[in-house]
Amino acid sequence: MIGLMLKVSGAWFAAILAGMPLYVSMGLAALAVLWLGGLPVTILPQKMAGSMNSFPIIAAPLFILMGNILAAARVTDRIVTFASAAIGWVRGGYAHASILTSMIFAGMVGSAVADAAGSGAIEVRAMTKAGYRPETAASITAAAATIGPIIPPSLPMVIYGITADVSIGKLFMAGIIPGLLMGGALMTMVMVVAKREGMTAKPFVGWRALGRAFLDCFFAIMTPVVILGGMFSGYFTPTEAAAVACLYALLLGFVVYRTLEVSQLGPILVETAETTGLVTVLVMAASALGWCLSISRLPQTLAPMIVQTISSPVMFLLMANVLMLVVGCFMEALAAMLILIPILVPAAIGYGIDPVQFGVVMVLNLILGTIHPPIGVVLFVVTRIAGVSFETMSRAILPWLVPLLVVLLAISIWPPLTLWLPHVLTGN
To answer: Domain residues of the chain, as ranges?
Structure first.
């Protein structure tokens, strides 16, 4: 069975490289395993449908819906105004404000692409008007957008938790400190390059204006507090938190800020359905293929081989980081995650690595792939916003990867950075 699985896996990767949609290639690979292995092919639709019979997976479309509602309600404008007032007065203040905006926005949408698209245009425009080079402004915006899937709520962490059978609540808690570290590391980088790049500061707006800006976006900033506070206090599960977040987003749009129109709900629901459909079909196909992998015992065979070959957990994490960074260069993050989880997570557990820590490491690795070529989805978004060539952006983003890689290394070799907060808040 293992030999058959290896042959099918080879054909599957060839299909991916040939440009076949990932969910199609996954489904066909699973079908081939069943057919060539003499198993009933009717198992395939059963496994695909069964993967959707999961309460936690409901969180995915709900968090997507929440992000779309907040974007349509133009909540980002208020956050950018507050961040600029709070930190725009220091050298490189516009860049610092962009990073702070992404950190706040991360607690609402949980997506790097949504972060870059939602606040990117405002941030890039403000920085270029202040004299920043367009590629520098776009690079800072792109790098800061990677914080989105790390600070909860996070769609990739929901998918990881469902696929790897790990507590989504603990994953959310584990992402808070790394997300803050990413923001701090990027701000440190801004301080280093501010003078060389000629980054300017604007006059302090005054405490009264700062207070008004804070009050104007107070209820928006409370979004992650509502989500995480309810989860940590035990009032609702991560899935229920997603539903509460949607209701809160509607409250902000219709009642608090009154920037949302009933006519916008139709397009919002359509966009949410399109995104959810893409995520769902990937999860269904990956679930069927994952079941085929499990019955072939390929992961169970590869995991001990990896453990025997590599001498220590730290070396395994370094190897896994390199592998995931390379994969992230060529494949969309969610798709890569669904492929790598059945192979790498059992091996990580074999080394005694907590799957919660490994989940944060995996998400950060693969999200970094969104800001460097050749795939670089976030890079494409900010390139269009800034009006610069993709080649120019590919060079400009490289220095801004350094602080993010430092954080990645830190959370890989020092588990308390990811596990301390879940331990404190849950007691285990």
So the answer is: 26-426
